[in-house]
Amino acid sequence: MKKSLLIAALFATTGAMAQLPSGSVCPDFTGTDLNGVTHNLYDYLDQGYTVVVDVSATWCGPCWSYHTGGALENLYDQYGPGTTEDNVIVLMI
Questions:
Q1: Is 54 helix (H, G, I), strand (E, B) or coil?
Q2: Element containing residue 38 per DSSP (H, E)
Q3: Is the Cβ–Cβ distance between 7 and 26 less than 8 Å?
């Protein structure tokens, strides 16, 4: 069984934040970023990372305001790969 997953899915078409209910299991997915690097959700979870998935759109005003506010960037800078904590991955979709 896969590890528990804490995932915040931010989908702000109405300006509201959404999150999966406690105990939910996110389906595995693999994506390739703009640099050609492949990212797999369950691989990150197996490595012990907490994964935050930001579902956003550049045309969505509330989404973009949240994204440019820097909250997830600060989280990544403090706890992401290359830091002493090294336990958080942030994926923007």
A1: strand
A2: strand 38-40
A3: yes
